[in-house]
From TrEMBL:
Residues in Recombinase domain copies: 163-320
Gene3D superfamilies in the cross-refs: Putative Large Serine Recombinase, Chain B, Domain 2, Resolvase, N-terminal catalytic domain
Matches recorded under InterPro entries: DNA_bind_recomb_sf (IPR038109), DNA_bind_recombinase_dom (IPR011109), Resolv_N (IPR006119), Resolvase-like_N_sf (IPR036162), SSR_resolvase (IPR050639)
Protein name: Recombinase family protein
Cited PANTHER family: DNA RECOMBINASE-RELATED, DNA-INVERTASE FROM LAMBDOID PROPHAGE
Natural source organism: Brevibacterium metallidurans
Superkingdom in the source lineage: Bacteria
Database matches in SUPFAM superfamilies: Resolvase-like
Domain Resolvase/invertase-type recombinase catalytic: 7-155
Pfam families in UniProt: Recombinase (PF07508), Resolvase (PF00239)
């Protein structure tokens, strides 16, 4: 009696497709599909990671992570790849798949016929091949690291994607340099400094901040430049990175980058992989024998004093431990609402964030307002919007849900890795250093995924509210921090002075605009 055919997933990957013509991927696809037909397996989905490394543990492979999540929910029970190193070059990842083959019956085969995890010989071959590949990678990495450090010690500009404000050849791009200077100035000013989130919104064009103009997302700009350069060389252009909103983490990267102060740095692999690279950048500034920082052979955009001042602000323990993105405030709109007074000298709206006062809100020299009435008016407006029948459909984009679910599934997988390693350690199968290595790698990945989840902001903040039977009630009952985040995600609130001679609260003195 014949059993039902296996449901198979095909995984295709190439580390670097320089021409981006997809031909290398298609060659893998053809061989894998032929093997599936030979074995009479049903192909449920093909996962493709083009120009994605399997050697770098910190590299994100979107379709690989999606495949892992799909396997955990039982979408397939077999994997076909062209060669084992297309699937992974990490021994720990390989062991996870071997566990799946031995304990859960996963069939994993390669189109070149070299590996079959259903046999002990195939598993032995896979482990040897992964170990050899890892050793080769480590030797190559050591050579590259030595060359990169030597380059940095000479003060030469690092290779890779150009940062905002600098051209590929290291020269300053005046228009972008103005934006970089504005970001540093607005973040470090004494009165009403801007936050990472507000700066990201201004760069995205969803919020106006005087002195800071909106820009296309930097990765989009660079991809357009690279496509144009390839076209000039007579090569087919690569896909353009989609434009979109700036994220607070990108702004943080700009503020943390020593290159803007012409400071030469070298980032060793261990620092890149711990998830705190940007906080460690100061320690990675190279110094000469006298202890002085090595200067880069490029023009600086930000002076030393400003750069170090920004680092002190970012290193402030009260700020660093604030993982929610909102400060501990006593009032709903403190640092959130903005002043709508028109400045007589310039004729422009003030736009500064109001601060908390004993009984409400204030913008020095412009307005002092009682807080409870304004907060209740804003709360009513948010509650009304959340009470709409199709609030979830209008506020949350469909793709937000699927992307967040995929992230949640991958996070669960990483936590499961930690649990398995802890179990193996308890059973004396692995040693303490192996447990630490697995835990550190998994926690690093979880941190990256949680950061991605947090950066989805709107969906991440609103889903717990909109997912209840009574969204308005859930909003009112939520903590001050959550209510502030919901308001920040949905609307922009501008406060004007209370009209003279009018008693009681005037709704016209508060403007609420949907984002």
């Amino acid at each position: 009696m014949s059993s039902a055919p296996r449901k198979a997933a095909i995984y295709l990957r190439i580390s670097q497709d320089r021409e981006m013509d997809g031909l290398a991927i298609e060659r893998q696809r053809e061989d894998c599909e032929n093997l599936a037909r030979f074995r009479r397996w049903e192909i449920v989905e093909t996962y493709v990671d083009q120009s994605k490394s399997a050697t770098d543990r910190s590299a994100i492979r979107p379709d690989y992570d999606r495949m892992v999540a799909d396997y955990l929910v039982g979408r397939f029970d077999a994997i076909i790849c062209y060669d084992l190193d297309r699937l992974t070059r990490q021994p720990r990842q390989l062991e996870d798949w071997i566990d799946a083959a031995e304990l859960r019956g996963l069939a994993l085969v390669t189109a070149n016929g070299d590996a079959d995890l259903s046999t002990d010989g195939g598993r032995m071959y896979a482990r040897i091949k992964a170990a050899v590949a890892r050793a080769e990678m480590e030797r190559k990495s050591a050579r590259q690291s030595a060359a990169q450090r030597q380059r940095a010690m000479q003060g030469r500009a690092p290779k890779g994607m150009r940062p905002l404000g600098y051209a590929v050849d290291g020269s300053v791009m005046p228009d972008e340099a103005v934006v970089v200077k504005a970001i540093y100035a607005l973040f470090s000013r004494i009165e009403n400094p801007e936050s990472l989130r507000s700066l990201a919104r201004a760069l995205s064009g969803t919020e106006k901040i005087k002195g800071l103009s909106a820009l296309p997302k930097h990765t989009h700009t660079v991809s357009v430049e690279r496509a144009a350069a390839r076209e000039e060389q007579g090569l087919d252009p690569r896909p353009i990175v989609e434009d979109g909103p700036w994220s607070p983490s990108t702004v943080l990267g700009i503020l943390r980058n020593p290159r803007y102060a012409a400071l030469s740095t070298y980032t060793p692999k261990f620092a890149q992989a711990d998830g705190k690279r940007r906080r460690m950048w100061k320690a990675q500034i190279l110094r000469d024998d006298a202890g002085e920082p090595i200067r880069g052979q490029w023009e600086r955009i930000v002076d030393d004093e400003t750069w170090w001042k920004v680092q002190e602000i970012l290193d402030d323990k009260k700020r660093v431990t604030n993982t929610s993105g909102a400060t501990k405030r006593k009032r709903l709109g403190s640092g959130l609402y903005r002043c709508g007074v028109v400045v007589s000298v310039t004729g422009e709206v003030c736009g500064k964030k109001v601060t908390g006062a004993p009984r409400g809100y204030t913008c020095p020299g412009h307005l002092v307002r009682s807080g409870p009435a304004i907060d209740e008016y804003v709360t009513e407006a948010i509650s009304a919007r959340l009470a709409e029948d199709d609030a979830a459909k209008k506020i949350l984009k469909p793709k937000d849900s699927s992307q967040t679910e995929a992230l949640d599934a991958t996070i669960s997988d990483q936590r499961a890795r930690i649990s398995r390693a802890q179990h193996d350690y308890d059973e004396e199968i692995i040693e303490g250093r192996d447990l630490k290595r697995v835990r550190d790698a998994a926690e690093e990945r979880i941190q990256e995924l949680e950061a991605q989840k947090a950066l989805r902001g709107r969906a991440g903040v609103l889903r717990p509210i909109l997912g209840t039977d009574d969204p308005p009630g859930a909003f009112r009952d939520a903590s001050l921090e959550i209510r502030r985040q919901v308001i920040d995600a949905l609307v922009a609130v501008t406060v004007f002075p209370q009209p003279r001679g009018r008693k009681g609260f005037d709704p016209a003195s508060v403007e609420i605009v949907s984002k």
